[in-house]
Amino acid sequence: MSKSLQAIRGMNDILPEQTPLWRYFEGTVARLLDNYGYKQIRMPIVEFTELFKRSIGEVTDIVEKEMYTFEDRNGDSLTLRPEGTAACVRAVLEHGITGGGQVQKLWYIGPMFRHERPQKGRYRQFHQIGLEVFNLDGPDIDAELIIMTWRLWGELGIRDAVKLELNSLGTSESRSRYREALVEYLSAHHDKLDEDSQRRLKTNPLRVLDTKNADTQAVLVDAPKMADYLDDESRAHFEGLKARLDAVGIPYVLNPKLVRGLDYYSKTVFEWVTDKLGAQGTVCAGGRYDGLVEQMGGKPTPGVGFAMGIERLVLMLETLEQIPEEISRQVDVYLCAFGEEAELAGLALAERVRDELPNLRLQVNAGAGSFKSQFKKADKSGALYALILGDDEMAQQVVGFKPLRGQGEQQSIAWDALAAHLATCVVQG
């Protein structure tokens, strides 16, 4: 017997009962970004491999171990995008929309791909909402990104479950000086480092700061601190960011070990973390990357952005039971019609109601059926009310109106008055 077809490990279907919560989350974020003046951009999910090698860094874990890379029929090396910033920078350069110092405030949504060990909240195909800002170099825009996410957590009802961690990586020059001091210190304790940190010491020493190994963490206690190597410009920028967060009242924790996993970051880096999801604690992260556009062939252009993982935040809403009641109910009203004449009248009546109440979720029974079977489907739909259209209702040009989720007697509503009645009961009630 042939093997049954199934999804690739770590690449999951999002089933109909799950999508309402996804749509709620995505819609909430989209409205928020619209209100702050951000515009959506959509990029391909496949790019030339060289793009990610040049932007992310060839000695990062993503490029070395995690990318889905293949050769197409033309012999070109292509990669499923592992993150969105590089693709967004490529797009703005290709189309010249940041030229002449034009400010661009952009956001995107879609799947990313990394060959990691799948676990809860961490998948090989995962979805992100990302945001990138170009040609603004002050701490005010860094603060705006963080303030927006703080507002988002409040709208979603999860603000008390997340914590903001901040750090500054300085300019490339100050980071280079710090790297030399860190390598010198860690080299003197080489035998105490775990194997992965020993490898990173030669390729990407700042990533040693991000280790989860307890022995290496003990070594790092007395390691040089990035804050001691910051240049005056970076220090002033970081103080300006903190002052703005203090002014708005956003609490934060300074984390000198926060470096992020990508080579292109400079100055501000931040993460929103939670202890509600086990090992997968980061739900949103980002920072400033002032040198990336130039590194990718453009003119010097300041940039800053973040990305948030949709799977993790949806899981967080479920874990904290912050799911609006209307999300679990996908139907407001279910129309039951008995007999061909009633079915035809019901279709026309339903469209008239939809014209007047475009936000009403009205489902018309399909497949006919007995009174009992149609009411069973109406109840299973989760609708608040059932509309009944049979011979008696047809004769009187009324529709039966029956509450399904509470007290109340069935009543008859004239066809012309139905939309107004539903507006009171459903849209307002």
UniProtKB/TrEMBL annotation:
Q: Which UniProt keywords apply?
A: Aminoacyl-tRNA synthetase, ATP-binding, Cytoplasm, Ligase, Nucleotide-binding, Protein biosynthesis
Instruction: Give the CC-aspect GO terms.
Output: cytoplasm
* Gene3D superfamilies named in the record: Anticodon-binding domain, Bira Bifunctional Protein, Domain 2
- InterPro entries in the cross-refs: aa-tRNA-synth_II, aa-tRNA-synth_II/BPL/LPL, Anticodon-bd, Anticodon-bd_dom_sf, His-tRNA-ligase, HisRS-like_core, HisRS/HisZ, HisRS_anticodon
Q: What is a single molecular function from GO for this protein?
A: histidine-tRNA ligase activity
Entry superkingdom: Bacteria
Q: Which residues form a coiled coil?
A: none
A Pfam family that this protein carries is: tRNA-synt_His
Identify the residues that the record assigns to the Aminoacyl-transfer RNA synthetases class-II family profile domain, covering every copy. Answer: 1-358
State its Enzyme Commission number(s). Answer: 6.1.1.21
- Name the reaction it catalyses: tRNA(His) + L-histidine + ATP = L-histidyl-tRNA(His) + AMP + diphosphate + H(+)
Task: Please state where this protein is localized.
Answer: Cytoplasm
Residues annotated to bind L-histidine: 83-85, 114, 128, 132, 260, 264-265
Biological process (GO) annotations held by this record are: histidyl-tRNA aminoacylation
Q: Which CDD domains match?
A: HisRS-like_core, HisRS_anticodon
Q: Which family does it belong to?
A: Belongs to the class-II aminoacyl-tRNA synthetase family.
HAMAP family xrefs: His_tRNA_synth
State whether it acts alone or in a complex, and with which partners, per the record: Homodimer.
Listed name of the protein = Histidine--tRNA ligase
